[in-house]
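Re-running Novel STAND NTPase 1 domain-containing protein to confirm reproducibility after the cluster update. Everything else is unchanged from the original entry.
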Amino acid sequence: MSGNPFPGPQPYTAESRQHFFGRERIARSFLSTMLVQRCVTLYGPSGSGKSSLMQALVLPWAKEASCRVVLVDKWPHERKPVDWLKETLRERLEVELVPSTSVSEAMTETPGHAEECADAPAFLYLDQIEQLLIRRSREDTDNVVRFLDQMVERPPREMHLVLGIREDYLGRWRERIRGRRRLIENWLRLGHLTVDDISGAVCTAAGNAGQDWNLEVMRRILHDVRIQGEDDSHEGPPPCGKTAYPEEVQAAYAQIVCRALFDKGGPPKRCEDARAEQILVEYLETTLASLGHLEEPARRLLEEHLIADDGSRRLLTARAARLGGLLEGDVERILETLERAAILRAEAQGHKSGRYYELGHDWLAKKLHERKQERQREEARQREEHARMQEEREREEARQREEHARMQEERERQLKQANELRGQAEAERERARGLLLVATARELLARGRPEWAPGLLLDVASPEQTDGWVALAIEVLGQRFAHATLKGHRRSLTAAAFSPDGRRVATACFDGATRVWSADGRGEPLVLLGHSDVVWTVAFSPDGCRIVTGGRDGVAFVWQIAGAEAPKLIATLEGHEDEIVAVAFSPDGRQVATASKDCTARLWDIESRDVKRHVLEAEAELTSVAFDPRGDRVVTGSQDGTTYVWSEASEARLVGHRGAVTRAVFSPDGRLVATASADRTVRVWSADRLAVLAVLGGHEHVVTAVAFAPDGQRVATASRDKTARVWNVGDPEPLFTVGPHGGAVVDVAWSPDGRHVITASEDGQARIWTAAGMESGALRGHKRSLVTAAWSRDGAQILTASLDDAKVWTAAGTGVPVVLEGDEGALSAARFDHDGQRVLTITKNGVARLFNADGSGAASILSEPDEPIRGASFEPKGQRVALVSPSAVWIVDPDGRRESPRLTVAADWHLVAAFGPTGLVAFAVAPGGRAVMAYTLAEGAERWSEPVALDVGAAPVERVFIRTHVARVRFATQDGAVHAWNLGALRESPVVTWWRHDGLKYIAFAPDDRCALALDETGLESAYLVTAENPSERLLLQDHDKQITYGTFSMDCTRVVTTSDDGTARAWRTDGTGRPIVLRGHRASVLHAAFSPDGERVVTASADGTARIWPLSVGALRERLAAAVPVDCMPPELRRMYRDETADQARKRYEACERSHGRDPARR
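Result of re-run:
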């Protein structure tokens, strides 16, 4: 069997001409016309077989007739059409067509070819000329038209032109060739074959190829592919035995069917089984499948855009196809594939509208419509199924959401409960930890280690909720502890000194080294090595840039320590034959004096390192050395009791002591010399007359030290009898004696302002005393005997040195409490001004002083010498103060200058006063309390108003309560009633009335009058909080050891403070929660107290002559604690004990702390 004779949707070619039948007659006719005419246009409908006719019959016959044939059926997109024609003609006809010549000229210029053309005609066949109209620009098409027109108008005459074009493009082509006579005059139309014609042809072709096809069956099959509109009057296939099938057939579909039939071995045998539909369906599916991933888009394109809802064919423009959402290249591929397979037929839509597409056959429309309906039904079913499943999903999701919400709610409830329990547990754990830290801090305080307590208290997470935190914080801050401990010597210290600027400390030691430290305790010290034995003494130069040391080896060294450079030895002072026990720089820093056990003192010039004059030679070992303030003279003491005052020009002896002189010093003005002696006395000498002015006796043991006060009028002495004394220079009786200490007092020093004295004792403590002899604080922390104590030049720091180490202290302590001191004895009252920035104190003898609340600056005295003050009131928003004496009231400015007229009453009347909304109001209570008169000094008025009598009932007034901040006055009468008036409405009736219950005595009222503080007259150590609503319900405030002296409320009524003869004040919460805050520090009865306007501080006034201001807010206390934390780091063993850390944690945290302060842990 030969190959398949049917090309399918492709045209027949010369190679397949033996299978092409049925068009022989028309082919001969057309060839005859071509031979006669220079130009012939063959047109016909799509699928009529134009290309097959020309390529399979006409052109092969022409070649057989010795004609030359040039076929152009493709127009490459990348080539210009005219260029493509010229190249094709040159290759096929061997005619050179240069760009400058026409085709006729080119042929004429080639004689050999011209002769050949005369003998053998040439045919140029341009197939599918419509491609030029579809895919080329108008310019390209017009160039082709001109070229063709020249070809047919000029010789050679034997060049014939044949144009093939689809019928639907004919109009557009005619428009392009209008006016070209030769191109437009000859037209031949080729129509479709009928069913009868093509049936016979395909049977013949099949027979020649070895298959015997039944003509009747083929006619029945090919009837299925008839052209639309042909014999459509009845539905279904025609009846078998029909004698004629005049309907026209689309050749491409006939070829498709026949090719498939041939591959299957031929058509069915029976006419009833003859149908083309299944073959075409398979062909359609195969074609669509060949598109690969574009199969589904192609199917959608066919069904959605080329089939109407009624199943008829619908037109699709190329532009509309490109708007379907596909890439333009994909659209082009789909359309070209479907058009090439004859599934789509493309037609011209108009002159400018482009092409349109429609399905190539009705059976396609029918089948695609069926599939579309089937797809739509399936999609509808799927949508219904999807909707049903979606509904079920939504129901399930709703159920799951409800279940999830229920479970989430349950989880949240459980989580909330767990969080609450966790929070309670954490809070309880935190509270327990806080209580443990507070207890640990209290234990440290009891063991004399207060320096570690601030850090522990700061570790408490919730101080407000930790019972006892505030009270302990105040107590801790009331202690004095070193800011820095200077550790590093390997043996006992012998001496220590501040640099003049207070920024450095020098220490001398038995280990032969002198160390220079930063006074703030940070960083590593400078180590000065040179002595071969003990260093006994050390001193700074006045500029602080040099240090002189003296030791047992009899040598003095002078070191340069300026800046951050390494210390430099600048002088070695050699010459003494025994130990140097004392050294001193001259005030100008150019000389050094040394005193030695070799019974000599020497004066050295630092620059030359030589003795400036002859050596002072004494008769006994020397003990001390000092320059006078001008640097002209030197004083030294000796073991035989002699004191030497000497200079370059003179030398004098002060004789009188019967024991060794332990210390000799000049007064600040250089006019006096004081000497302390082992004979238990101190002598004061005139430095000029060299005569004794006073002998200060009274000590019971060796006097170890003596120091002049800055004013030069007083001296302080220290003794091994464990006391220190302060004397007026010319008075043999001491002003006061302090002590006894726990051991011998070895040193004493005055503060630069002369208001305090510090003593150093062998009991390991230094104590600070006021100039009046009252202890101001104890500096505890050393474990061994002290060797010295000193103030920095600015008075801000204190240096103590003991046999174990040196410590630097803040002289003012932590600032808690702020201590306000006067010189007039016991205080009776203290109160804040309206903004809490100032405090007014009143002494029992009537002196009123105004202090800054932070303790800075000097106080101003507001009272007059001859008129004692009994009460005072601050102006609510101003600076003035109202003062009340026993018989008068007046206003003064902050400097005590009177600024108002005086109100004077009889001396036996009791006066009180306070500022009210309209001015100052004064109340005078008659003797016996039988009458109360009110006077007003309005704002800006020059005189007091006429008195207003207040009706307080028949019972006598026994007490008056008045507070400026409350602007209310209360009178307690003997019948137990309390009447209250607003200060701005004195002519009205009382606003509140209290009645005494069960023998209670009211001592204070809350600003809102909802509660009062009362004492039980049978037990004055306790107080009661009583409410106005139910006076029988009382809150007992019981903690004082002695009688309560006073009580008052804070402005917000949340706290009440009580004072007592036990020397304390206690702040209580009015709601009864927590323990009271004990304000401890006064050394005598506390007689009065007042809250600051914000309630965050309390000022207390005491019979010890001081007022103290105490912070109560956690925030302020934490700030103070943070500032009080020393730069010393808690050792690992203490961290393990008090911070509950492991050994490794304690070591690492200790080392980290040391490094944070610039210190090497290994050297500590």
